[in-house]
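Hey, can you fold this one?
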Amino acid sequence: MRAVIAEGGRSRLVERPTPSPGPGQVRIRVAGAGLNRADLLQCLGRYAPPAGVTDVLGLEASGVVDAIGEGVASVWLGRSVIALLRGGGMADWVVCDVREVAPAPSHLALAEAGAWPEAWVTAHLHLVTLGRVAAGERALVFGGAGGVGSAAIHILLRRGASVVATAAGPERCAYVSQLGAQPIDRLARYWTESLDALWPDGLDLALDTVGGEATGALVDRLRPDGRVAVVGLLGGARATVDGARIIHRRLTLFGHGLRGLTEAARGTALAAAMADIASLATFATRSLPLESVQDGLDQMRAGTIVGKLWLDVTTSQRHQTSA
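Sure. Predicted structure:
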């Protein structure tokens, strides 16, 4: 089978043996796979897969179960599914624990459904399960025009929060506005100035994809019982925060990586997010064939993607068959 690995700072399409499922596992004939910043970081040598996990890129996928391992109910055979993976999604087939899959949303094309598990579960876990968003709260999303940002805006609005989201430039701000959030153009004005003008008395919850000094600035703007969920470190891994403010205002600062969770915990997180995935609105998405994954990673590194970019593996498979 074809598979995408990281090599020399870039992605490379290689041939690998088609895997067979072990006990408790299913094999999925992949239809679509999402592209995430973690894939870019793995290519750059900054995010190695956990021990024992395949070196094939891809943290999410969709497709049809075509084989099952010992102990897996036969009802899964032939079923269209989405999968939240620790790796392996960018290939013609992927094997994973049956607890890491869920029925594919019926209102999405199967290939496109592979674009959303990682982004959707990341947003849901940090904002709902751990962030405890409540109706009437004020929430800030960094990177509102990206995949996780799109999911976060939808999840927050669905729960009655007021949402402000940062984005870079007029096109991305227009997209954020279409999703229902108040955009802040971080290229036109430093985000703290814009946020202070909108919410001078602070906010309740933030999805922080930047880290570094931005995390400290968010803590400084939290209202009592406020929370900051750190899901990225584009601005650096170290932050300076006001410890006294955290204590006196009962603030919470946390992060929770999906890749390091057990199969059972990942399955629980995916199941918890399924109601939100089922309500998935139409977001900006764009697909590339599997062999063009490096083009997508280059676009991600350049910051030119609006919405979610994903790989249509079925297009590549049809071409391969016809050839």
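The domain at 2-118+285-322 is CATH 3.90.180.10 (Quinone Oxidoreductase; Chain A, domain 1). Let me know if you want another pass with a different chain boundary.
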